[in-house]
């Protein structure tokens, strides 16, 4: 038995159990559900050339000094609620009175592939654009569409003082805002409106997210990632607008909105990676579900049982169909002000 951040008893997360031959056989391949597509991709043609020498970046300067605020959409091409919000703000001619404002359409090429009959495929062209932000990777000779595009956008990222990365969720779940562990980013997360929960974690072993770039993890600049709700729902667009306006409103002279502020602060303690292609949850959990008791089996990964390590364990963004090597779920508990103790499981 180990101990959690508040020194309470902590049970093991992954428990091996004997399995029969039949249990080790791969399950039948099941099709993805049919998703309800309630919104369509926005027309971004007026903005794709950009106005500052970087395609897909609309940049504006205020008359008074102030921070450089950056809002990024389309890191994943099939998550276009954020692009819809930025398009609406641009058409309203929202401009900063102080500081600088950059509105970024990161991967419009992926969005062009969007097909309502197969909406998941438009996530990327070559690879996940939210795993390419390691400086060593950006400086390497490696190439892909998303990596090359990240290099083009890097001058904007390296001058950002506050950055909000706009996303949505494939599976149903409570909206949330994610940050890394830096105090500045966690403080920023508490001020983002439209969501009830802010969650701090230390990123992914499989690659570096935009919000984990050293610009935001090692210095005074701050970055958060918004998960505004399920893909392709108008309610997700509404929450995204609330979050963006809460960030840019003061510098742009926009009226305050009535979106909720986060009331719960959670810390991720465990990141569960699927070790086999047989990872299955015992039921279709939604993000934000709180499991009351420690030791509750929530999933099976081949012959292993995945159990909650402590009471009142929150499941953060469970992936109901994880591939081998991909994150299946994160476990989080109420933040006690200490860093997460456990490595990936």
From TrEMBL:
Give me the Gene Ontology terms describing cellular component: cytosol
Q: Which GO terms describe its molecular function?
A: hydrolase activity, acting on ester bonds; metal ion binding
Which Pfam families does the UniProt entry name for this protein? Answer: AstE_AspA_cat (PF24827)
The alphabetized UniProt keywords are: Hydrolase, Metal-binding, Zinc
Q: Report the residue ranges that make up the Succinylglutamate desuccinylase/Aspartoacylase catalytic domain in this protein.
A: 66-168
UniProt keyword Manganese present: no
Which cofactors go with this protein?
Answer: Zn(2+)
Q: Does the keyword Hydrolase apply?
A: yes
SUPFAM superfamilies cross-referenced by the UniProt entry: Zn-dependent exopeptidases (SSF53187)
Designated name of the protein: Succinylglutamate desuccinylase/Aspartoacylase catalytic domain-containing protein
Taxonomic placement: Bacteria, Pseudomonadati, Pseudomonadota, Alphaproteobacteria, Acetobacterales
């Amino acid at each position: 038995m180990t101990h959690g951040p508040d020194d309470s008893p902590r049970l093991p997360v992954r428990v091996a159990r004997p399995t029969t031959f039949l249990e080790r056989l791969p399950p039948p391949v099941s099709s993805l559900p049919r998703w309800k597509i309630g919104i369509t991709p926005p027309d971004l043609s007026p903005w794709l050339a950009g106005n500052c020498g970087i395609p897909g970046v609309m940049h504006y300067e205020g008359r008074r000094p102030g921070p450089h605020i950056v809002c990024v959409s389309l890191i994943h091409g099939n998550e276009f609620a954020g692009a819809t919000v930025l398009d609406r703000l641009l058409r309203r001619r929202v401009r900063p009175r102080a500081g600088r404002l950059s509105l970024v359409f990161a991967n419009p090429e992926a969005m062009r592939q969007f097909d309502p009959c197969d909406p998941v495929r438009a996530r990327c062209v070559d690879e996940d654009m939210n795993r390419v932000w390691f400086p060593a990777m950006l400086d390497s000779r490696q190439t892909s569409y998303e990596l090359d595009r990240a290099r083009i956008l890097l001058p904007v990222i390296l001058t950002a003082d506050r950055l909000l990365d706009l996303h949505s969720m494939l599976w149903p779940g409570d909206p949330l805002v994610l940050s890394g562990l830096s105090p500045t980013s966690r403080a920023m997360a508490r001020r983002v409106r439209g969501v009830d929960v802010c969650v701090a974690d230390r990123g992914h072993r499989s690659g570096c997210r935009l919000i984990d770039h050293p610009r935001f993890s090692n210095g005074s600049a701050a970055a958060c990632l918004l998960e505004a709700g399920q893909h392709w729902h108008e309610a997700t667009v509404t929450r995204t607008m609330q979050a963006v306006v809460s960030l840019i409103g003061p510098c742009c002279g926009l009226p305050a909105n009535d979106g909720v502020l986060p009331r719960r602060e959670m810390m991720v303690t465990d990141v569960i990676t699927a070790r086999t292609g047989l990872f299955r949850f015992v039921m279709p959990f939604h993000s934000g579900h709180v499991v009351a008791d420690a030791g509750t089996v929530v999933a099976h990964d081949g012959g292993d049982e995945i159990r909650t390590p402590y009471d009142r364990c929150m499941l953060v963004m469970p992936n109901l169909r994880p591939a081998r090597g991909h994150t299946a779920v994160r476990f989080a508990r109420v933040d006690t002000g200490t860093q997460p103790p456990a490595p990936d499981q």
